[in-house]
Amino acid sequence: MKQLLNFLKPRLLTSFILFLSGSQAYAQVQPGIPKPRGPVDLSDTSNLVIFIILPILVIIGYFFWRKAMKKRKEEEDKQQ
Question: pTM of the full predicted structure?
């Protein structure tokens, strides 16, 4: 009996956690939130800025930051 209980404990716990995670995922669905209606209209200035210009600026900023980090690391290696 003890072996059966030791065998079932992890499986019962796993089943319970999976059951709860499914209900939590369903609870995340919000009624009344607008659904996507198709492709983004880039003729609107705000959409152009949000979906094109800002991501490009983030990517460019990332490359400058990465270059600065490499330069700083090289300077630290030279000082040691």
Answer: 0.54
Q: Which residues 6+ apart lie within 8 Å of 42 measured at CB? A: 48, 51, 52
CB 48 within 8 A of CB 42: yes
Q: What is the DSSP string of 27-58?
A: HTPPTTPPPP-SS--TTSHHHHIIIIIHHHHH
- Do the Cβ atoms of 47 and 40 come closer than 8 Å? yes
Max CA distance (Å), the chain? 71
- Render pLDDT for 35-45 as a digit per residue (tens, 0 to 9): 778 888 889 99
